[in-house]
Amino acid sequence: MTGPTEPAALATRVRALLEAHWNPARGYCVPNPFTYPHLWLWDSCFHAVIWAHLGDERAVTELAAVLDGQLDGGLVPHMRYGPQPPDTWLGPLPASSSLAQPPMFGHAARVLAAHGLPVGPKVLDRARRGLDWLWEHRRADDGLLYVVHPWEAGNDHSPRWDDWGAPGRTAADYDRAARSAWNAARVHDLSFAADGAATWSSSFVVKPAAFNAYVAFNLAELADLLADDELAGRARGLAAAADALLWDPAAALWADLPVVGGGPSARIPISDGVMGALVTSDPGKAHAALDQLTLPDRFGAPAGPANVARTHPSYDPGMYWRGAAWPHLNYLFHLALRRWGRDEDAATLAERTRADAVASGWAEYWHAEDGRALGAVPQSWTGLVLAMDER
Ligand code: GLC
User: Fold this and answer.
1) Mind telling me which residue stretches traverse the membrane in this protein (predicted)?
2) Does the beta carbon of 174 lie inside 6 Å of ligand 1?
3) Are 330 and 343 in contact (CB under 8 A)?
4) How close is the Cα of 283 to the center of ligand 1, in Å?
5) Which of 312, 121, 287, 128 has its CA nearest to residue 218?
6) Which atom in ligand 1 lies closest to the alpha carbon of residue 381?
């Protein structure tokens, strides 16, 4: 095969992308130097995965940088600030946010080890403590984990959050600036522990299907790496709780469960509701959810998967978290498809994601119908297409 998505050409381009965003003094890549000039937790975990696929030791440095931000109690913050803190207040701490984000460091540590780039005991211990913190401080009596801010879930402007009173519900009345201001104001509703970690909110608490799947997945990945039965048991228990409490048979997706605020929007069909396939032990649920990635009346858009079902009124294929296609989600879908032996579907998704990533100039996300570049361009995590290539 020749052309820009041929493996060697792709690796060269992905290396150039990451190198352009690498800061040697800080030891990590920024997602994009203008839009996102700080460290973001799951972005940097994905960057570490990409470095590992490039066989580059910066994988180890970048994963360590994520965990260097760990607070005294164990929370790994969703952002560590560059030289200038952001304009938005993200909690009482001077150098990092007080919020969680999907803890992809368990998965990253496992990928690095598989590529002959083992992380040291300090990083492994921190990763474990990061997962322990979520387990001890964010787990409800029913066994599910909750988040206290939309930014913690990774998909900040999802239509699933619409019933929390955020402005803009449909493609016609959605206003990104107003929604961002609403999200920023929610930080003032948080309670913080002595070390600065956010523990509760008076206006937004929810048990998101995807966040629970991500935590279970990262517990399972770290458990495998450490051969730790106790962690593996936690992963299985959390996946089982999500199957019992979050599975929505009518939608054939895992739905979110509001705790403080919210309403029926928590069940809007979004592709994050497929992520349970990363961890469930139930083949029926996994296949029913994964099938929807390609069904035209669900997420199966030409440059998809779309992040919101194409037939839902809130579907806006070019809008941030409201329908556009996201490369890091495609990477996770790819892992889930492989886990369930759907190698052909996985290969098709990988091929299309590679083509869309290259054509969009490595965009942060793209229009699910026509592949048009959207958001920050270029964005580091789009290099994940290299890790979707198992040829
Ligand atoms: C946006 C995304 C979030 C990501 C960050 C940096 O806030 O919603 O998931 O981590 O950008 O790329």
Assistant:
1) none
2) no
3) no
4) 31
5) 128
6) 12
- For residue 117, the one-letter residue type is L
Residues 119-141 pLDDT 10s: 999 999 999 999 999 999 999 99
Q: Is the pTM of this model over 0.90?
A: yes
Asked if residue 206 has pLDDT above 90, the reply is yes
Q: Classify residue 143 by its DSSP letter.
A: S
Whether 43 is in the pocket of ligand 1, judged by its Cβ within 6 Å, is yes
Nearest-angstrom CA–CA distance, 334 and 190: 35
* DSSP assignment of 220-274: HHHHHHHT-HHHHHHHHHHHHHHHHHHEETTTTEE--EEEES--GGGGS-BGGGG
Cα–Cα distance between 237 and 55 in angstroms, integer?
34
CB atoms within 10 A of CB 64: 19
The token pair that represents 135 in the structure block: 């387990």
Residue 172: count of CB within 10 angstroms of its CB = 8
Q: Which residue has the tokens 């913690």?
A: 152
The response to whether residue 378 sits with its C-beta less than 6 Å from ligand 1 reads: no
Query: In angstroms, rounded to a whole number, what is the distance separating the alpha carbons of residues 140 and 205?
Result: 11
